[in-house]
Design brief:
Layout: H1 6-16, E1 48-51, E2 57-64, H2 91-103, E3 109-113, H3 120-137, E4 143-147, H4 154-163, E5 166-168, H5 176-182, H6 188-211, E6 223-229, H7 236-250, E7 254-259, H8 277-292, H9 297-302, H10 315-322, E8 329-330, H11 336-339, H12 347-356, H13 364-370, E9 381-382, H14 397-409
Parallel strand pairs: 2-3, 3-4, 4-5, 5-6, 6-7, 8-9
Antiparallel strand pairs: 1-2
Helix pairs in contact: 2-3, 3-4, 4-6, 7-8
Length: about 425
C-alpha cells in the first residue's frame, strides 16, 4: 500500500464510509466537559449529519479504519475484488483526528467502521484501542459508535461496549438466503449470535447498575443494525418482518434501511439500477408505525400491495384505505391507540388532542391548529362540527389523498 498522508487517507476512508447508514447518536447517557474536566460531550450543537428522534442534528466524524478487506461481499465497494484505492489509518491517527475535529467544533463524536484486515479479531482489537485511548488517555466524553465485527471474539465485543456508546452489528440483508448469495463469507448465525450476546450484556449491565452505582456502563445507547434494500429479491413485506423479528429478539434501538446503490465493476448477480429512494423512505415510515404507533408487523404488511409498500402514499394511509370500516374516528371520544391510526396524526398531535379535549369539545378548526394540515385528515375523523358523510365513501379517495400528501411536502405552497 502506497504511503499516504493523513489528509489523503481521510479523503479515501471518509468517502468509503458513506454507505453505512447506521450512525445516529440518540439514546446515550449525557456527559460533558463542563468545569474543565475531560474533552467533548454527547450533546449540544455541532462531518456526517445524523438526527436524533427529538430532531437534534448531530455531527459525527464518520470514517473507516481501513477500506481493505479479506471478504468479497458482492454489494460492497470495498470488497476484496474491487478496484478501489486502498488506505488505512493507524489507531493514533484516528484518535488525533477525532480530538482535532472536536476541538474545532466540527463534530460531536465518532462513528468508526472498518474493512476486515488480517482477521476479525485483529481488526476489532484495533477499533477497541481507538475507543479505549479516547476514553482513558484523553478523557473524551463525546459520542462513540463502533460498527463491530460479529466474527470477532466475544471478549473483544464486550470491551468495545465498555468504551463505546452504541455498537452496531449489521445483518446486511433482510433474509438469510440473500446474505448467503451476496455475502458468502458472512454467517447469518454468527451475526445473530453476536447480537444476542450484546443484548444479554446490556441487560446484565442494567441490572448491575440498579444495584451498584459504580458499575461501569455497557453500550449505554444500545445496539443497532442495517439492512440493504433492493440488492436482493426480498420485498418490503419480508423487510418489515425481518426488522420486527430483530426488534423483538435483540432489543435493538434502531434498524436502518439503506437503498442499494450500484457500484463500479459490480457483480453480475446485482441489479443494474438502484431502487427508488422513496422505497427506503416508506420503510422508515413503516418502521415508525411498529415502534411508536402500535402497529404490529401483520398490519404493516397488510398496507403493502403484492408485498411492496406503495410509493405514492404513506403506509398508515395505505392501511387506513384498506380498513375504511374503522373510520371515521371521533377525536372527542376515541382512545389514543385509535387516534394514532388516523392518517396525518403524529404522536405529538395526538397528545395535544388528548390534552385539549379535556377542556372542551374540539371542532375541525381546533384540529387544524393542533396538526400540520387538515386536508388529509378530513375523511378519517369526526369533530364537533364535522362528519365526513360522503367524503369517507368516495371511490376516488386515494387520488385525493395523494394530492394532499404531495401538497403537504411543498416548501412554498
Amino acid at each position: 500500500m502506497a504511503q499516504l498522508d493523513t489528509r489523503s487517507k481521510l479523503a479515501i476512508l471518509a468517502d468509503a464510509a458513506k454507505y453505512d447508514a447506521s450512525c445516529a447518536s440518540s439514546g446515550t447517557a449525557k456527559r460533558n466537559s463542563v468545569g474543565g474536566k475531560g474533552v467533548g460531550s454527547t450533546e449540544g450543537s455541532g462531518i456526517c449529519h445524523s438526527y436524533a428522534p427529538d430532531g437534534r442534528c448531530i455531527s459525527l466524524l464518520k470514517i473507516l479504519l481501513t477500506n481493505s478487506c479479506i471478504f468479497d461481499c458482492h454489494y460492497c465497494i470495498n470488497r476484496k475484488s474491487s478496484n478501489v484505492r486502498r488506505a488505512r489509518f493507524t489507531v493514533d491517527e484516528v484518535v488525533r483526528l477525532t480530538l482535532s475535529f472536536y476541538k474545532r467544533n466540527y463534530i460531536e463524536g465518532l462513528f468508526l467502521s472498518s474493512g476486515i484486515i488480517g482477521s476479525s479479531d485483529y481488526t476489532m482489537e484495533a477499533m477497541v484501542r481507538v475507543a479505549k485511548t479516547l476514553r482513558l488517555d484523553h478523557d473524551f466524553r463525546g459520542y462513540i459508535h463502533l460498527k463491530t465485527i460479529p466474527d470477532a471474539a466475544p471478549e473483544l465485543l464486550d470491551q468495545a461496549a465498555m468504551y463505546a456508546d452504541r455498537l452496531s452489528i449489521n445483518v446486511e440483508l433482510p433474509t438469510v438466503e440473500g446474505l448467503g448469495k451476496l455475502a458468502p463469507d458472512k454467517d447469518a448465525g454468527r451475526i445473530r449470535l453476536a447480537m444476542g450476546g450484546l443484548k444479554t450484556g446490556i441487560a446484565e449491565n442494567k441490572e448491575a447498575r440498579r444495584k451498584f452505582r459504580s458499575a461501569p456502563k455497557f453500550a449505554p445507547a444500545g445496539q443497532s443494525t442495517q439492512m440493504i434494500v433492493g440488492a436482493d429479491a426480498a420485498d418490503d413485506s419480508a423487510v418489515v418482518a425481518s426488522a420486527s423479528s430483530l426488534y423483538g429478539k435483540f432489543g435493538l434501538r434502531r434498524v436502518y434501511y439503506s437503498a442499494f446503490s450500484p457500484i463500479p465493476d459490480a457483480s453480475a448477480v446485482l441489479p443494474l439500477v438502484q431502487p427508488p429512494l422513496m422505497r427506503e423512505h416508506r420503510l422508515y415510515q413503516a418502521d415508525w408505525l411498529m415502534r411508536f404507533y402500535g402497529f404490529n408487523v401483520g398490519e404493516v404488511q397488510d398496507a403493502t400491495d403484492a408485498g411492496m409498500l406503495p410509493l405514492d402514499i404513506d403506509p398508515k394511509t395505505a392501511w387506513a384505505l384498506k380498513h375504511r370500516a374503522s373510520f371515521p374516528v371521533d377525536v372527542n371520544k376515541a382512545p389514543r391507540e385509535m387516534l394514532l391510526r388516523v392518517p396525518g396524526l403524529g404522536v405529538k398531535s395526538v397528545n395535544a388532542i388528548l390534552r385539549a379535549r379535556r377542556q372542551r369539545r374540539l371542532e375541525l378548526a381546533d384540529i387544524g391548529r393542533l396538526t400540520r394540515g387538515i386536508e388529509k385528515l378530513r375523511p378519517f375523523l369526526i369533530a364537533a362540527d364535522w362528519r365526513p358523510v360522503a367524503l369517507a365513501e368516495r371511490a376516488d379517495l386515494r387520488p385525493r389523498l395523494v394530492k394532499a400528501e404531495r401538497s403537504q411536502l411543498e416548501l412554498f405552497g
